[in-house]
Input
Amino acid sequence: MIIHNLGLNDSLLNQFMAEMRDVNIHCDRMRFRRNIERLGEITAYEISKTLKYHTVEIKTPLGIQPVSVPDESIVIASVLRAGLPFHQGFLSYFDAAENAFISASRKYNEDHSAFTIELGYLSSPSIAGKTLIIIDPMLATGSSLDLAYKTLLKRGIPTRIHVACVIASRYGIETASRIFPEEKTILWAGAIDPELNDKAYIVPGLGDAGDLAYGEKT
Output
């Protein structure tokens, strides 16, 4: 599996990432959502460089111009709920893409010492023979990504796979490398953080992305 850490290169991505991490800024939900959306737009542009293309002839008011355009059918699949603004960023660039949504949440035991991942919802077209972009903004343990991917496979086998994260942990990347077929998967992350805490949150991370985007859940 090829891994791209987009934060290693100097770009505006790191400004948006800084604002999402900063405790003095990221409590502004509208700004937080917009910054995740921006990360989606940047990642979509980077992914576009890896797609297959074909040439079409475009008629302009003054003549004919050959243009190279993408030649892949794309399905964007997001893990809810933090994935929604990230998904919108991708959809702003891949506006002809099909869309899939998966609800995956943590189910804690009574003392919150352990949890399992539960799937609550799936809406997806066929992904057979298509390019799948699977979005999980915070790749912590990789458990929700694992469940999401195995569930999506009920809709077919994709030709190529892109895994997109805002922040990934090293542990999560190790999990992803075991889940996905090595020869046809590329993982994209805005940043890769070193560890998880005892609650399986990414450290230093940014907190709970879903809560920061949409408010705390009960």
User: Anything to note?
Assistant: The chain has one domain: 2-52+71-214. The longest helix spans residues 29-48.
